[in-house]
Here is the input.
Amino acid sequence: MIILDDVKKTYDNGLVVALAGVSFSIQAGEIVSITGPSGCGKSTLLNLIGSLDRPTSGEIFYQNRRIKDHKPLNRFRAKNIGFIFQFHHLIPTMTLLENVEIQMIPLGIPQKIRTQKATSILSALGLNGRKNFLPVRTSGGERQRAAIARALVHEPRLILADEPTGNLDTDNGDQAINHIISLCRQIGTTAIIATHNPDVASRADRSIRMKNGKIEE
Here is the structure.
């Protein structure tokens, strides 16, 4: 499903090397963890796979087609990719339900169906009683669960999670990763999870370890 062919990413006219030639492939439905120390290139890698940035050289393929050829890219991302970050990035003036619904607006899904789908996934994540609350009135774990709901509500083919438990305590972190993996398994979504947490990495089907912008193991 995803193929990276000698992908490199540099900044400041080549002075800063974020990725130094990365190649690997990921099958559809596979859950893969990307591990390694801070600054090893994990986040850069996810940004490139998610078409939020472009490689300096090399190619990234999504379903046997170069990602850069999937145009318009914003439509491609909205339809096919769900992003989960360390910080939830919920819109503070919207309820949890509205934050989840907004993910489906670019896809032209009717209001009634948006509400039904958002309510269903929030309920599955134990948030039915909190769906009409603003983020500020919910806990950190609840906010991150809402962010997971937002990423998965439109049943994307690919989930990109960048340190999704990094801002949570152990119990909430365990719950979050359990929800991500369980929902991905249910709908057959491929997931790439960048993490420094070995317990999170061990939950994946396969782990790729990075160091200094390269694959170490």
Summary: The beta strands are 2-11, 16-26, 31-35, 57-62, 65-66, 81-84, 158-162, 190-194, 206-211, 214-215. The helical segments are 42-49, 73-80, 96-101, 111-124, 140-152, 170-187, 198-201. Residues 29-39+73-215 form a domain with the Rossmann fold fold (CATH 3.40.50.300).
